[in-house]
Specification:
InterPro entries: Cation_efflux_TM, Cation_efflux_TMD_sf, SLC30A9
Subcellular location: Membrane
Protein name: Cation transporter
Membrane topology: Multi-pass membrane protein
Order of helices and strands: HH
Keywords: Membrane, Signal, Transmembrane, Transmembrane helix, Transport
Number of domains: 1
Strand content: under 5%
Helix content: 55-70%
Largest sheet: none
Distance between the termini: 18 Å
Number of strands: 0
Length: 63
């Protein structure tokens, strides 16, 4: 995740230096990859919660 974030920052700097529309598109793609990884981490944490009376089989399906 941090590597993708670093790549996004690098592409942002390259976009600022070149004003290239393709660099802007690549920046958006890298940000989408980073946010996807954040959502996967959040889902993994939520899936590890213990079972409750409302969810007797746990939260594994939230993943």
């Amino acid at each position: 995740m941090f590597a993708n974030l670093g790549i996004a920052v690098t592409k942002f700097v390259a976009f600022l230096l070149t004003a290239s529309s393709s660099m802007l598109a690549e920046l958006v793609h890298s940000l989408a990859d980073t946010s996807n990884q954040l959502l996967l981490l959040l889902g993994g944490r939520r899936a590890k919660r213990a079972a409750t009376p409302e969810h007797p089989f746990g939260y594994g399906r939230e993943r």
